[in-house]
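fyi for ur records
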Amino acid sequence: MLQHYHWLGLDPAARGASVAMGNFDGLHRGHQAVIDLARGSAPLGIVTFEPHPRQYFNPDAPPFRLMNAEARANRLARLGVDHLYQLPFDATLAGLTAEAFVDEVLHQGLGVSHVVVGADFCFGKGRKGTAADLTSLCNARNIRTTISPLITHDLAEISSTNIRRALTEGRPRDAAAMLGHWHRIEGEVIHGEKRGRELGYPTANMSLAGLHLPRFGVYAVLVDILTGPQKGSHHGVASLGVRPMFGVNTPNLETFVFDFKGDLYGQHLSIALVDYLRPELKFDGLPALITQMDADSDRARGILKAL
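which gave:
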């Protein structure tokens, strides 16, 4: 998958794609339906924005994203996307009217042949442009458009909001049913305080900065090592939260990879939350903590073996 970071100066070979357009946070089943409608004879493209417009307009709001840009790109590559047009959402882009966006970005800049959006898509300065406006403006420029209806799961609308709610309540399997894949946290393994190795449970630590926080606690997880000489897939158990046993207040994700030996610092991992095992607890000493970690690991192994 080729990635492009602006609509200006685009290589002619990257023009003419059939694109799905949106923020695609989580890339849930509704997003996948939009993307599938863009598949056809032309190369498949995605038009999306970084940072998320909501972050741009309200930078002090609590983190809400289900995916960082890296995780979104990795998932899109798995979906067979040829071109990812990740446009910088800044004052210039935010100030474009709906008509100017279609003319300058989609028509002149990207030269798209077909645009697909969800029925609730809004765009342009002040979010004044609707899906119907997009159709009218694109038709005037000989760009075909398709509007995808919203889809539901068990009579509930599939949305990033409902997926966040499931994760907040510690229901990763319900989130996965709406997503169409496991909810994953992806990023670089960073140095922590290395307490885990002293307990016999060395962990890979990852930042949760900028992401919606699932329910704090311990999870059975699938682990994909994405980079480095030890790339591969594993099972594991992870603690997501603030580690009350040690008085740490910055949330992070600490993953113990089963039956693995090696140095993962600086490598990129993808951690899929499968089942919520228990909330964070504060124990009366390290022996009690280790006993609980043994039990968590045994339970996670059983859950993951049954997948």
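The mean pLDDT is 93. thats all i got for now
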